[in-house]
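Ops channel
N.P.: pipeline sanity check, posting one input/output pair.
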């Protein structure tokens, strides 16, 4: 009887586990029509991993190449406009952005009822709320702000090497013929707006035509319909370049298709339509798309996929490529554990992409957004008034994770890593400084690292002492989400002088949480 009961219990457990797993997979597919991540479920524990420490022996003399700048490409949003000071705060935390992605909503700049432009519009004012013929697009979750468009653009123009401008809206109304707006109107307002802002903000360089056009919440267009708007976009860009006499690094570049669901298939169709386009003036200066909730092992090898498609259609593979939105996880709910999953997971996708797809520029989503909707992606939070001060902005754990990455500078130190590991350890060396970061993707466990050959970086120390500072990001540290009193940013948890022995030192973290991040800075001077 006891044996029968045990067998029955075992069977019921197996059925329950299978049903739960199937339900979770269904929800992932339903909520975001993408391949699920190759990392284990956020909420699933892996008992076998808990007993295995994260260990490495790191020889600082084995330096390979300059450590990549993994936080050089950044994203903004107009769904809740960032305070202009976010640009300055981002610059201070991560260094100068190589390309910052900004947005232009055509229906905020140009009102079809008056056919008048308001180039310095107040962002997020929903003036079409009661007009049933007007496609709602992303208006239901756009927040009215006191920030005006000039303030927004000037801030990021001042703190970026270049700007990518994503231009959208009015597409669905034109396709459905619900408003007195034509394709010709769309090209006109696209061109006039872009030309106006290019004169004011000359760092605008890349122009994306539309955004995730296939989604019903945006344009809800077919691939073929999207190309009609892309053609208008490149024609407008060509005319602006000619009228303003732009050439070389000043010239505007146009690209797409800026798709997310089934993006490889859509990019394939986009290239097909481009090939069929008989215009001698057609332009494709870069390719861009979005990757959310995709296996990291696929994302990091994406360069080959895109270049294979370019080659298939006889197009040059020597073209800039942007994943212009990315996060490893995109569940529909906005839970705290998802924020930490992205804080840790982004490091893996950004780092390995720099190795396997070095020609792709990844722009993680997002510096600032509506914290009631997208905390799982945000790097900063705080008020978004035009006069918000830097000390009012709080860096969230994902922002702190990105700051860890910027602390890895100079030459990369060779470390034994694998994309299949449930951890990653990164290290860099510059004059009189070594930085080591470790991340745990499994159950809580210890980290034990042996740092060897320190005399190669610190010849003056020999068997003397090194100044060791340790920082931690987890549920209790560098975390203003779980501790509202904390002002945000990276949190120092240890600061001491440690004696080296035979040119080496031991670095330890007794218990690193799942998706926890720990970083050590070693210097010879305080």
């Amino acid at each position: 009887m006891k044996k029968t009961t045990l067998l029955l219990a075992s069977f019921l457990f197996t059925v329950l586990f299978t049903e739960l797993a199937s339900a979770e997979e269904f929800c992932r597919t339903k909520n975001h029509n993408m391949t699920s991540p190759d990392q284990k479920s956020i909420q699933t524990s892996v008992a076998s991993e808990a007993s295995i420490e994260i260990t490495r022996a790191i020889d600082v003399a084995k330096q390979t190449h300059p450590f990549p700048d993994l936080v050089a490409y950044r994203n903004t949003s107009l769904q809740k406009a960032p305070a202009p000071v976010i640009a300055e705060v981002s610059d201070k935390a991560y260094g100068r952005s190589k390309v910052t992605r900004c947005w232009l909503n055509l229906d905020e700049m140009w009102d079809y009822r008056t056919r008048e432009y308001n180039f310095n519009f107040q962002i997020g004012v929903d003036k079409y709320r009661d007009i049933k013929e007007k496609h709602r697009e992303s208006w239901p979750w756009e927040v009215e702000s006191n920030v005006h468009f000039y303030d927004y653009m000037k801030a990021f123009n001042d703190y970026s090497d270049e700007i990518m401008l994503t231009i959208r809206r009015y597409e669905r109304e034109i396709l459905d013929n619900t408003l007195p707006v034509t394709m010709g109107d769309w090209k006109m307002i696209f061109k006039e707006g872009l030309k106006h802002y290019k004169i004011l903000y000359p760092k605008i360089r890349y122009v994306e035509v539309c955004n995730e056009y296939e989604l019903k919440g945006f344009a809800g267009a077919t691939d073929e319909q999207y190309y009609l708007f892309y053609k208008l976009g490149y024609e407008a860009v060509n005319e602006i370049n000619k009228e303003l006499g732009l050439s070389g690094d000043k010239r505007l570049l146009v690209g797409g298709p800026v798709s997310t669901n089934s993006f490889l298939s859509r990019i394939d169709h986009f290239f097909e339509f481009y090939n069929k386009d008989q215009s001698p003036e057609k332009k494709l200066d870069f390719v861009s798309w979005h990757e959310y909730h995709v296996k990291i092992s696929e994302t990091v090898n994406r360069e080959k996929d895109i270049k294979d498609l370019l080659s298939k259609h006889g197009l040059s593979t020597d073209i800039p490529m942007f994943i212009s939105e990315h996060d490893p996880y995109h569940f529909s709910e906005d839970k705290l554990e998802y924020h930490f999953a992205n804080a840790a997971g982004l490091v893996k996708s950004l780092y390995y992409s720099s190795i396997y797809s070095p020609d792709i520029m990844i722009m993680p989503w997002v510096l600032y957004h509506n914290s009631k909707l997208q905390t799982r992606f945000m790097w900063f939070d705080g008020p978004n008034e035009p006069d918000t001060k830097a000390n009012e902005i709080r860096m969230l754990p994902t922002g702190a994770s990105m700051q860890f990455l910027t602390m890895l500078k100079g030459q990369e130190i060779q470390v034994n890593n694998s994309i299949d590991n449930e951890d990653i350890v990164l290290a860099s060396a510059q004059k009189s400084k070594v930085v080591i970061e470790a991340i745990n993707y499994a159950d809580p466990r210890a980290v034990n690292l042996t740092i060897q050959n320190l005399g190669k970086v610190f010849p003056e120390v020999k068997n003397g002492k090194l100044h060791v500072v340790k920082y931690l990001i987890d549920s209790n540290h560098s975390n203003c989400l779980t501790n509202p009193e904390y002002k945000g940013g990276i949190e120092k948890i240890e600061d001491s002088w440690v004696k080296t022995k035979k040119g080496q030192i031991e670095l330890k973290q007794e218990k690193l949480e799942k998706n926890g991040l720990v970083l050590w800075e070693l210097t010879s001077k305080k």
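N.P.: looks fine end to end. The CA atoms of residues 476 and 482 lie 7 Å apart.
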